[in-house]
Design a protein that fits this description.
Arginase, Chain A; 9-stranded parallel beta sheet; 9 strands; alpha/beta; about 15% strand
Length: about 325
């Protein structure tokens, strides 16, 4: 989309006809679609669908992530004017990316939520695109992985997080953001030997075979060494990247339900994500952004940048054929 064309444009979130290209509308006006992409349910010709899941009823303590997708979208309107720095290509020019809107669900029927989300993501994958999901608490990754595993087979997961989410819980009907990875492994959705958790800094009795690079190790090794180790662990199989914003230290992302000090700096996370280029990324999510606990909006800004990096990783995979 050329700059001169923007003068005659009225809110590209609704009027954009070309799904590729940068946007030049005012960041302070218009609909807050992710990166000014078009809001649409039409997936014909689409490479990647961004969708929101405003669900926070699985948290162990502080709610508020239901407002995460809206906040991340608003923060993303600062980014669609230039290609992301350091990647060397323009993913918005190379891929057809749309904002698929939010998952509709009945907040009063929590037991029905997992199946609704699983079907939502499965429908997108069946149509061809991959997904980047804006959460929402971290429980949402479980139904998403169910859809992905049904489509691609067991996934190799890269999880950025302060918590392992591996608390033992064999009641598969329980909806809990602290047990979702335990269930994903037990259900065979995840290949733990080729999966890795980055930034962990809370206790876990059993990692169920998953590889771990905890926060102190990240600080000691440096992000480039971490990324290289992650690539070796993950290998060439289908990969899903889940980024819990509490992987970042509260100094960089205070707006989350269960912050833990000693976490990653934003520059470390950015360097690790960019160092993952070459993985076979099929999709990803950004979760646990809780705007009520951050009056500055910094956490949502971090979430929007993470989502852009995931978009770039997805584009890199496509570029490699």
């Amino acid at each position: 989309m050329a700059l001169e064309d923007a003068k005659h444009e009225v809110d590209a979130a609704f009027t954009r006809s070309d799904l590729r290209g940068l946007s030049y509308e005012n960041a302070f006006g218009g609909a807050t679609s992710f990166l000014r992409r078009r809001y649409t349910k039409d997936l014909a010709g689409v490479d990647l669908a961004v969708t929101g899941v405003p669900f926070d009823q699985a948290v162990t303590h502080r709610p508020g992530t239901r407002f995460g997708p809206r906040a991340i979208r608003e923060a993303s309107t600062l980014q669609p004017y230039d290609p992301p720095y350091g990647w060397g290509f323009d993913p918005l020019g190379e891929m057809a990316v749309v904002d698929y809107g939010d998952l509709p669900f009945d907040y009063a029927k929590v037991a029905d939520f997992p199946a609704a989300l699983r079907a939502h993501v499965a429908g997108i994958l069946a149509a061809g695109p991959g997904t980047i999901t804006l959460g929402g608490d971290h429980y949402i990754t479980l139904p998403i992985l169910q859809a992905y595993a049904a489509h691609f087979g067991p996934m190799r997961v890269i999880q950025f997080d302060a918590h392992s989410d591996l608390w033992a819980d064999d009641d598969m009907a329980r909806i809990d953001h602290g047990t979702m990875m335990y269930k994903a492994v037990k259900l065979g959705l995840v290949d733990p030997a080729h999966s890795v958790q980055i930034g962990i800094r809370t206790e876990c009795d059993d990692y169920l075979g998953m590889q771990v690079i905890d926060a102190p190790a990240v600080h000691a090794m440096g992000p480039h060494a971490v990324a290289a180790q992650v690539r070796r662990i993950v290998g060439d199989g289908p990969c899903y990247v889940s980024f819990d914003i509490d992987a970042l230290d509260p100094a960089f992302a205070p707006g989350t339900g269960t912050p833990v000090w000693g976490g990653l700096a934003s520059w470390q996370a950015a360097a690790i994500l960019r160092g993952l280029a070459g993985i076979d990324m099929k999709g990803g999510d950004v979760v646990e952004v809780s705007p009520p606990y951050d009056t500055t909006g910094a956490t949502a800004i971090a979430g929007a940048h993470v989502a852009m990096e995931l978009l770039c990783l997805y584009c890199w995979t496509r570029r490699q054929g």
